[in-house]
Amino acid sequence: MEIGKKTRAKLVATFDLSAAMVAGLGYPSELADTDTTGHLGGTLNLLNGEVAVTFVPAWHGAGVDTSENSPPVYAGTPSGLVIAIRNGPTIYHTGDTDLFSDMALVSRFNKIDIMLVCIGDHFTMGPARAAEAVKLVAPRTVVPMHYATFPVLTGTPEAFDRELKKRNVKAELRVMNIGETVMLSES
Predict the structure, then answer these.
(1) pLDDT, tens digit, for every residue of 29-88?
(2) Dihedral sign from CA coordinates of 131, 123, 82, 101
(3) Is residue 180 one of the residues assigned to a domain?
(4) Count of domains observed in the chain
(5) Which one, 7, 50, 54, 187, has the greatest CB density within 10 A?
(6) Which residues contact 73 (CB under 8 A, 6 or more apart)?
(7) For residue 76, how many other CB atoms are within 10 A of its CB?
(8) What torsion do the CA atoms of 69, 67, 59, 131 make, to the nearest 10 degrees?
(9) Could you tell me if residue 13 is inside a domain?
(10) What DSSP string runs through 155-176?
């Protein structure tokens, strides 16, 4: 939120999430217009066609916290993102989600080079279910996320690696460190 206000970055989000952020959090409405908002199944072509973003389903709640003393503002259907970079990799960010069989459909429309998958458990899928999701999508590389940020998120990259091996998943496991930058190679 503060980064967007400071940098004047356009908000790329589903229509409902964008509306909730504008109304509930004061995100600048001129940075959240129809050029950068869409909905499930829709694709946005951004940066003169250099990047295509497709909204795909995720199974999770969706709300925006506006204050500590108020219930969250409804933010629509949760989503993941498929980000296709021209002459570069295609990234599937699962969003906060559980495993669901339709994840397999993502790779029917895009060859996924990098899959960002939550492994924390409790609020999202844990390592075993995340490994099944990776098996469904068959990315080249998988990056675990949404773990170890607070005590109830007990999933670990080590447990995730064991679950991937149990399922004979061939994706390269890439565990990132906080603050680490990686260079994305062409697909």
Answers:
(1) 999 999 999 999 999 999 999 999 999 999 998 888 988 888 888 999 999 999 999 999
(2) positive
(3) no
(4) 1
(5) 54
(6) 20, 23, 24, 63, 64, 65, 66
(7) 18
(8) -100
(9) no
(10) --HHHHHHHHHHTT--PEE-PP
Task: Measure the CA–CA gap between 60 and 63, rounded to whole angstroms.
Answer: 10
* 176 CB-near residues (< 8 Å, 6+ apart): 143, 182
CA angle (106 as vertex; 41, 4 as ends), nearest 5: 60
The answer to the question of residue 139 being in a domain is yes
Locate 98 and state its tokens: 């559980």
The answer to whether 42 touches 36, Cβ cutoff 8 Å, is: no
Residue carrying structure tokens 């589903």: 14
Host domain of residue 99: 89-173
Percent of the chain with pLDDT strictly greater than 70: 99
Looking up tokens 């680490």, which residue turns up?
A: 180
Does some domain include residue 77? no
* pLDDT for residue 66: 87
Query: Checking DSSP bridges between strand 63-64 and strand 73-74, what pairing results, if any?
Result: antiparallel
Phi first, then psi: give them for residue 155, nearest 5 degrees. Answer: -65, 145
Phi, psi of 122 (to 5 degrees): 70, -60
Instruction: List strands edge to edge, sheet with 79-85.
Output: 43-46, 51-57, 79-85, 90-93, 114-118, 141-145, 172-173
Helix (H, G, I), strand (E, B) or coil at 15: helix
Angstrom distance (rounded) from CA 28 to CA 48: 22
